[in-house]
Amino acid sequence: MDFSTEIKDLFLKNRRYKGKFQYTVPSPSAYPYQWLWDSCFHAIVLSYFNLTDAKKEILSLVSNQFEDGMIPHIIYWRNLTHSKFLKINWGKKGTSTITQPPMIAYAVWQIFEKDGDKDFLEGVYFHLYNYYLYLLKKRDPNMDHLLGIINPDESGEDNSPRFDEPLGLSPNQTLEENIKRRLQLVKQNIECNFDLSFCMKNFFWVKDVPFNSIMIENLDILAKIAKKLNHPTDASFFKNEADKISWAMRRLMLEDGIFWSIYGDDNKKIKVKTWSIFSPLFAKILTPKEASKLVQNNLCVDVKFWAKYPLPTVSLEESSFDPNDFWRGPAWMASNWFVYKGLRNYGFDKEAEKIKKSSQNMLQISGFRERFNPLNGEGLGAKNFTWGGLVLDMV
């Protein structure tokens, strides 16, 4: 199935402008602003159609970078009074004050590999350098080489059951209860002026497996970018930091072949099986034997993750699993893309192909929706949602 024409049309319809900047909204009706990891996905997809547009997506994203290097997870380019997102006070006008999974180096490198434009690399390198340095310095107050997130929204998976225990919520909560608790967290962070070491230790401090796995892969790529731009010291530094995070994940997260997210000063493991257990495949930090065991014992098991339309974001065995409830069961194209890439890293081509075909089939059945019921392929949530474009990069 080739969705190229539909994807190109969708991205053109979702394109927006503000002054000299051009960006893509994930969904005009539900998500009318610019999001960090969404724009990274957008740049990856746009690189298949127009590299200039892909570069503009990145340039608009870094235009609101904070002085300390952080790139916010939302940029409110437009004042849309009807939007529910405008009602959230993040403590700063024009943007949020939290971040999202650091996918930007990956997106930049994918663009560069297609046209070799070193001027573009040089133009964004300062932003990349400062963003990843911010994460390394500010999100690791205990210096154990694992990055912490201060809000579930920073994971990109707002109400994932991985965060129930740190939030003090039950596995069978309502979405309203979850939103209320996360908004309380935002208020607490604003009140403490986003003092990261204090906020993380006292309100919410999770060292999430996907966030750190994505960081490893992106630091490796940032090292390539630095080397390409003749910054050998930077290249060595970022590669070394990636290795430190990989080692720390093994030391503090790995148990019985699975990497678990951890929280608190005592690094308590959160033993809830979500798609996150497969994210280390993306960062290539498992041995081939470990990867094989993980795939055979968890991914390719019907009562766990091998649903009719994989990949459910939560194991069917978990009490929190709900095929219709946001990040508590439905299949999402982004998590499918990460797992697809991880499987290909280890030569699990048959399994990767099934996830690719399932992603295409869900688009065929339901169109470009935000998420999908993994039991029947039914589309859920926002319409005209851009993440479906990631099927182009399942290659």
Overview of this structure, please?
It is a single chain. The protein is mostly helical. The protein has two domains: 4-283, Glycosyltransferase (Alpha/alpha barrel), CATH 1.50.10; 284-395, no CATH class. It has 14 helices and eleven strands. The chain has a three-stranded antiparallel β-sheet with strand order 5-8-9. The chain has a two-stranded antiparallel sheet with strand order 1-2. A two-stranded antiparallel ribbon has the order 3-4. The longest helix is centred in the first third of the chain and has 21 residues, at 118-138.
**Under the CATH scheme, which class of the largest domain?**
Mainly Alpha
Ranges where pLDDT stays below 50 over 5 or more residues in a row are: none
| Rg (CA only) | 19 Å
- Based on the coordinates given, report the CATH architecture of the largest domain: Alpha/alpha barrel
CATH fold annotation of the largest domain: Glycosyltransferase
Query: What's the quaternary structure here?
Result: single chain
Number of E-type strands: 11
